[in-house]
Amino acid sequence: MAGDQDLFDSIVMAEDRFHGEGYQEGYEEGSNLGMTEGRHHGTLLGAKIGSEIGCYQGFAFAWRCLLHSRATEKDSKKMKVLESLIGMIQKFPYDDPTYANLHDDLDRIRGKFKQLCSLLNVQPDFKISVEGSGLSF
Question: Per residue, what are the HEC states of 6-64?
Fold first, then answer.
């Protein structure tokens, strides 16, 4: 009779056991997939931000060379904003993805870049957006 009871219990408890095993397998597979997708998404977003910052830096360095070669008194405000932008870019935490103010600092750099473009009376030929920057043809 005890053998019949154990057999009956194993049949009744099979659903709970299979449910638990299925949950555990699904959780592990979902965690692995989530890590892979998260890593891929982070790599793409990091590349976009890096490309955007690189565009700003190249723009700023080129204009610094141009303004230094023909610096006048009325260019002092432009130089001040330009040096401020370069300083912000150099202080940007490229190697710390957990930096809490990363997006705030990026927004400040974008704003400073727009201010510089306005002072220089230059229309940049690349777009600035939340998705990042890219050259437009």
Answer: HHHHHHHHHHHHHHHHHHHHHHHHHHHHHHHHHHHHHHHHHHHHHHHHHHHHHHHHHHH
Give dist(CA 33, CA 44) in Å, integer: 17
Of 17-21, 52-56, 130-134, the poorest mean pLDDT is in: 130-134
pTM of the model: 0.70
Distance CA 82, CA 70 (A): 15
Tokens representing residue 123 in the block: 């229309």
Q: What is the pLDDT of residues 38-60, one digit of tens each?
A: 899 888 988 899 899 999 999 99
